[in-house]
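job 3f2a | input accepted
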Amino acid sequence: MIMKAAAVLFSGGKDSTMAAYKAMKDGWKVEYLLSMHSENPHSYMFHVPNIHLTHLLSQAMELPLIQAETPGEKEKELEDLKQAMINLKKNGVETIFTGAIHSDYQKSRIDGLCDEIGLESIAPLWHQNPLEYMQEVVDLGFKVIITSVSAEGLDESWLGRIIDEELLEELKVLNERYGLHMAFEGGEAETLVLDGPIFKKRLKILDSEKIWDRDSGHLLIKGAELVDK
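job 3f2a | predicted structure (229 res):
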C-alpha cells in the first residue's frame, strides 16, 4: 500500500513532534512541516513560545518547512491557516497531522478546514491517556524542555526543565492537588523538543533568558544551533 503524502502542523513542541513521529512510524510520506507564526502571544490556535526555532528543528529532522504568518486574531487566524493548507494541497499533500490530545477547540477547527479544502485530518494522539502519553515521550528518548508555564503549582524554576521520570512524578502530585493536565493540554505549559529518534541532529541552546510576570512566564531562547549527535 502506498501511503499518502502528509504534512504536520508543527510548532517544535512535544505534541506536534510526536504527531510527526507517529506519522513516520505508520509509514506516511511526511513531505512538509507547517509552522504558523502568530503575532499574538495569546493565540487561541497556535503555539507561540520560540516558534522561531522551527527552521532549525526542520533541518534536524531533514524535512522541508513551510512558514506562514498570522496576526493571531481569534477565528480570523483560521483563514491564514486555511490559505497555508490550500497551498500544501497544491503541492500534493493529502493529509494533515496535528498534535491535538484533548482540545476540541483546535481539533474541530482543523477538521472543519480539512473538510472544506478536501484534506484528510489525523490527530494520532487524540484522547490518549495523558500520563501514558508523557511516559511514552520519555521512553522513546525525546529530549523535551518546558518553555512556558501559566498554572498553579508551576513556578519560574520549571522553565528550562527537562521532562524526565522525576518531573513526571511531580506532575502526578500537581494533578492530584490542582487538577493540572498531565500533558499540559489546557495551556498550563509549553514545550520545545531538542532531540529525539527522528532527529538527525540535536538542538543546542546557546543563550536563553527567563521572563517572569507575577504567576506565569516563558523561556526566551536567544541563540541555538544544531550539533551532531
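job 3f2a | The chain has a mean pLDDT of 92.
job 3f2a | closed
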